[in-house]
Design brief:
By secondary structure, this protein is an alpha+beta fold. 26% of the residues lie in helices and 22% in strands.
C-alpha cells in the first residue's frame, strides 16, 4: 500500500464542534453535523506543522487593533480538588482540564478535535500500521529550561506502557505497545504488537523529563503555563512559560484555578470579581448573568449517566436495569435540570462524535411505567426495593439529577436514598473501590470512540460498573483492530447497541458546557474534551 501524504489540517479525529448553533440558547443541540474521520489505514506521513497555539495565534491576528492586552492574571473556578499532579496517575477529568495547560504530548488536540503535532514536528506510520516514527520539534523546552529529547519521550511513554501490580499497563491506551526506541536525540520509533486504530490519540499523553520522579509534587511539562503553587483543597496556580516554543503564547501572566466546591459560592465569587471564569455554571445562572458577563454554551462530548453496580444482586438482573431505564424520563431531566440545554443519549457516546454515533438508541427506553413495573415483577421485585444513589456532592448538576430520578423511580416502587459523597471519597470508594449501588457521574469524552468505550471491557481496570459482556468485548476489540473504515464504524455502533440492549447504565444526556466570563476577556475556546485552555485567553482592556 502506498503511503498517503496529507496535510495535518485534514486529519480530523472528530467533527468540528459547532459553537454558533449551540450558543443560540434554544437547547436544540441535536442537529446533524458533518465530520471527517481519522484515516483508517494509518499510513500517514505528516509534514512539519504548527502547533495548535500557533494556529490560534494566526487566527487572532488583528486583535491588537481590537484592544488586545498582554499580561494579566485570571482566576478560574473549579468544583473539585485534583486527584494527582502527576499527569500519568491522574484519572479525574477535573484534574485533566487543569493539567492540559501544563503538559503536552507528541500530539495535541485543538478546539475542533483535530490532532496536531506538538512536541513532535512530523510523523510517519508504516504501511502495516505497526510502526510509528516521530521527528521532534526543535526548540521545545521543559519548564526547568532543559531541551526535550527523544529520551524524555521514551521515558514518559515507557512509564505509561509499563505493567502495574495488576499486570496491566499504567495507561490501558499503551497496552498494544511492543517497544519504544530513541535512535537519536530527535527521533522516536514506537512499535505495536498489533494494529491499533486509536493509538494516535494516545500520543497526546504528557511527556515529562527523563528519570523525573517528583511530578506529583512539582510537575514539569512543556505546556504554555508552568506550575507555580498547589494548596490542596484551595487552589493550583500556574504562570506563563516564557520559553514556550510558540512565540506570543500565552498572553496571560498567571492563572489560578480556585477550588470552590459550592456552586453558590462560585457564583458570588464571579459576581464580586474574585473569579473571572466560571466553567460549568448552571444554565439558569448563566441566563441570569447574561447582561453582566460573556458566555459560551455548547455540547461538550460528555456522557452524564446513572451507573449500576452490576455485582449487586438486584442490578445483576438485566430486567431490573431495563425497568429502571423505562421508569427514568430523560426528557424531563433535560428540561428540568439542564433547562433544555442537553442532548439526549441512549448509549455511552455523544453525537459530537457524529461519525461513530449510533442514532436511535436514545428512544430504546421511551418512558413506560407499566412496562417497568412488569419487568420488576418478572425479576421478583413486584413491590420494588430500597437502594442508595451515591452522588458527588460538588457537582450540583448531578445532585439535581439524582433528586429527579428518585421521584421517578418512586413511581415503580423503588425507594431511593440519595447519599451525597465528597469528591475524594467518590474517587476512592466508588470509582476505585466499586463500593456503591447506584451513582451519577459525567464521563468525559475522548478523541476516539475506543478510548471512550473501553472502560466497559470485562477486564478493564476502570470498569467500575462491573459490566461483563463477551459480545461487547468481541465487538470493541475487533473495532480497534479493523483497518477498513466502514467496518470499524459499524463495529463501534454495534458496541453501543449492545450496551443499550444490556441496559448497562441509564444514559441521560450530553449536557451543554456553560461558561461565564469576565467581559474584559476574549479568546476563550471550547473543546469537545474536558479541558480548560487558557493559552489563547487575553484581556481586551
Amino acid at each position: 500500500m502506498l503511503k498517503k501524504r496529507r496535510n495535518y489540517m485534514f486529519i480530523s479525529i472528530i467533527l468540528m464542534l459547532s459553537l454558533s448553533l449551540a450558543a443560540c440558547g434554544n437547547g436544540n443541540t441535536n442537529s446533524k453535523r458533518d465530520s471527517e474521520g481519522q484515516s483508517s489505514s494509518g499510513n500517514a506521513k505528516e509534514t512539519a506543522a504548527p502547533a495548535p497555539a500557533e494556529t490560534a495565534k494566526a487566527e487572532d491576528k488583528g486583535n491588537k487593533t481590537a484592544g488586545k492586552k498582554e499580561g494579566g492574571s485570571v482566576v478560574v473556578a473549579i468544583p473539585q480538588d485534583l486527584d494527582f499532579l502527576d499527569p500519568h496517575l491522574a484519572v479525574a477529568a477535573g484534574t485533566q482540564e487543569v493539567l492540559f495547560n501544563i503538559f503536552e504530548g507528541l500530539l495535541k488536540p485543538n478546539e475542533k478535535g483535530e490532532l496536531y503535532p506538538a512536541i513532535a514536528e512530523s510523523y510517519e506510520v508504516s504501511p502495516d500500521g505497526l510502526t510509528y516514527t516521530f521527528k521532534l520539534r526543535s526548540g521545545v523546552k521543559f519548564h526547568n529550561g532543559n531541551p526535550v529529547t527523544s529520551e524524555d519521550v521514551k521515558y514518559s511513554y515507557d512509564r505509561l506502557a509499563a505493567p502495574t501490580e495488576s499486570g496491566k499497563p499504567l495507561s490501558p491506551a499503551f497496552g498494544s505497545v511492543q517497544s519504544i526506541e530513541a535512535p537519536d536525540a530527535s527521533t522516536i520509533i514506537i512499535k505495536l504488537k498489533e494494529n491499533n486504530t486509536s493509538f494516535l490519540t494516545s500520543l497526546t499523553a504528557a511527556v515529562i523529563p527523563s528519570g523525573y520522579e517528583d511530578s506529583n509534587k512539582n510537575p514539569i511539562g512543556t505546556g504554555p503555563f508552568k506550575f507555580k503553587e498547589y494548596l490542596p483543597g484551595q487552589r493550583i496556580s500556574v504562570e506563563k512559560f516564557a520559553d514556550y516554543y510558540v512565540a506570543g503564547i500565552p498572553s496571560l501572566d498567571q492563572v489560578e484555578f480556585r477550588i470552590i466546591t459550592d456552586p453558590e459560592a462560585s457564583l458570588l465569587a464571579l459576581k464580586s470579581g474574585e473569579v473571572d471564569i466560571y466553567p460549568r455554571i448552571g444554565t439558569e445562572r448563566l441566563e441570569e448573568l447574561a447582561d453582566q458577563f460573556n458566555s459560551v454554551s455548547a455540547p461538550q462530548n460528555l456522557v452524564q449517566l446513572m451507573t449500576f453496580n452490576i455485582d449487586k444482586k438486584q442490578y445483576s438482573d438485566v430486567r431490573v436495569r431495563q425497568a429502571i431505564n423505562y421508569a427514568v424520563n430523560v426528557d424531563e431531566i433535560i428540561e428540568g435540570v439542564a433547562l433544555g440545554k442537553g442532548t439526549k443519549l441512549g448509549s455511552n457516546l455523544s453525537p459530537v462524535l457524529a461519525k461513530y454515533f449510533q442514532e436511535g438508541l436514545e428512544n430504546t427506553y421511551a418512558t413506560d411505567i407499566e412496562k417497568a413495573k412488569s419487568l420488576l415483577a418478572e425479576a421478583g421485585y413486584k413491590d420494588g426495593f430500597e437502594t442508595t444513589l451515591s452522588v458527588p456532592s460538588n457537582y450540583q448538576f448531578h445532585v439535581d439529577t439524582a433528586q429527579v430520578i428518585a421521584q421517578q423511580l418512586a413511581k415503580i416502587g423503588i425507594k431511593v436514598k440519595i447519599e451525597p459523597v465528597e469528591w475524594a471519597v467518590w474517587l476512592e470508594r466508588i470509582y476505585k473501590g466499586r463500593d456503591y449501588e447506584l451513582t451519577i457521574i459525567g464521563l468525559d469524552g475522548k478523541l476516539d470512540p475506543y478510548q471512550i468505550l473501553n472502560k466497559y471491557l470485562s477486564d478493564s481496570p476502570n470498569n467500575f460498573f462491573n459490566y461483563k459482556s463477551g459480545d461487547f468485548d468481541s465487538a470493541l476489540k475487533a473495532a480497534v483492530l479493523e483497518i477498513d473504515d466502514a467496518k470499524r464504524v459499524e463495529l463501534y455502533k454495534k458496541a453501543q447497541t449492545i450496551l443499550t440492549q444490556d441496559a448497562a447504565a441509564v444514559y441521560i444526556m450530553d449536557p451543554n458546557l456553560n461558561v461565564a466570563l469576565n467581559k474584559k476577556l476574549a479568546g476563550y475556546k471550547q473543546y469537545p474534551l474536558y479541558v480548560q485552555d487558557l493559552s489563547t485567553v487575553y484581556f481586551t482592556e
